């Protein structure tokens, strides 16, 4: 008797870093009972996914019809090729995609309307915005449903992305703003770790010691935040003794107006996302 949680047959067309991460998450989850077919242009890239449980990895240089074969057999098709390649791929698979199929975009800047226009009314389209921690099963994925996607379609896709982390339901208008937070957010975090490491080196620690202290402090703080369930402001207050050293350091950071810096940074990212969507 099939598991109620089991996912239908899935195709991931263009299984690069993100598509590959999703394939690995599906394989680990045990929910891909009906199988996952991934495609990549080169045999070298396809080989990276060989051997994953429930995953069939196809190299287009060996099987030129791999995209259409995979799309024809799948109930859920993830499109992970580069944004400029999306329209051509959609035109390639449109004749074989069966009515009722769910097609999910992994491509930044490509609108749901583009997918629906090429694929037609019988296909449910959703647009996703996963982030790189999906590579370790701790991603955040924004998910926006198109005009033909019902609640059941969205539920299937949510369960798919939950194999690599957390899912946030948003409108398509919120996808670009979300990308400036969860999409770009890992880079902001890594920058903070870089700068904290430099500060430690400046205090006389060697690079290995500085990296260890900086990285593990951030990793440990994140784990404490998750485990406690407390508001980050409350956790900060607990570390910040009145008239102590941390209070003095926090005052310097607050005087630097980090709130304005982060607002400006995310605004800049959003402006660029809209330029990219317009082809600039």
Automatic annotation (TrEMBL):
Enzyme class: oxidoreductase
Domain Pyrroline-5-carboxylate reductase dimerisation: 172-276
EC number, UniProt record: 1.5.1.2
Gene3D superfamilies: NAD(P)-binding Rossmann-like Domain, ProC C-terminal domain-like
Segments passing through the bilayer: none
Molecular function via GO: pyrroline-5-carboxylate reductase activity
GO BP term, example: L-proline biosynthetic process
Chain ranges of the Pyrroline-5-carboxylate reductase catalytic N-terminal domain: 10-109
Keywords: Amino-acid biosynthesis, Cytoplasm, NADP, Oxidoreductase, Proline biosynthesis
NCBIfam families (UniProt xref): proC
Protein family membership: Belongs to the pyrroline-5-carboxylate reductase family.
Protein name as it appears in the record: Pyrroline-5-carboxylate reductase
Organism this protein belongs to: Microbacterium allomyrinae
Gene name as annotated: proC
């Amino acid at each position: 008797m099939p598991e109620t949680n089991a996912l239908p047959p899935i195709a991931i067309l263009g299984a690069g870093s993100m598509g590959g991460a999703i394939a690995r998450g599906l394989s680990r989850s045990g929910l891909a009972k009906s199988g996952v077919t991934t495609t990549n242009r080169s045999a070298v890239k396809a080989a990276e996914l060989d051997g994953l449980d429930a995953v069939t990895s196809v190299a287009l240089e060996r099987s030129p019809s791999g995209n259409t074969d995979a799309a024809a057999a799948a109930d859920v098709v993830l499109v992970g090729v580069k944004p400029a390649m999306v329209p051509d791929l959609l035109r390639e698979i449109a004749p074989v995609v069966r009515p009722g199929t769910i097609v999910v975009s992994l491509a930044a800047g490509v609108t749901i309307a583009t997918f629906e226009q090429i694929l037609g009314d019988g296909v449910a389209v959703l647009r996703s915005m996963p982030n790189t921690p999906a590579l370790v099963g701790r991603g955040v994925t924004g998910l926006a449903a198109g005009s033909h996607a019902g609640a059941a379609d969205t539920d299937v896709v949510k369960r798919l992305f939950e194999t690599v982390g957390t899912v946030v339901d948003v409108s398509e208008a919120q996808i670009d703003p979300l990308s400036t937070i969860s999409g770009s957010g890992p880079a902001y975090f890594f920058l903070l770790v870089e700068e904290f490491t430099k500060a430690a080196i400046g205090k006389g620690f060697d690079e290995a010691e500085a990296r260890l202290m900086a990285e593990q402090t951030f990793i440990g703080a994140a784990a404490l935040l998750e485990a406690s369930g407390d508001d980050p402001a409350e956790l900060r207050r607990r570390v910040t003794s009145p008239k102590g050293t941390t209070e003095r350091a926090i005052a310097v950071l607050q005087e630097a107006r980090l709130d304005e810096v982060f607002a400006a940074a995310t605004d800049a990212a959003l402006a660029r996302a809209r330029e990219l969507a317009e082809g600039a």
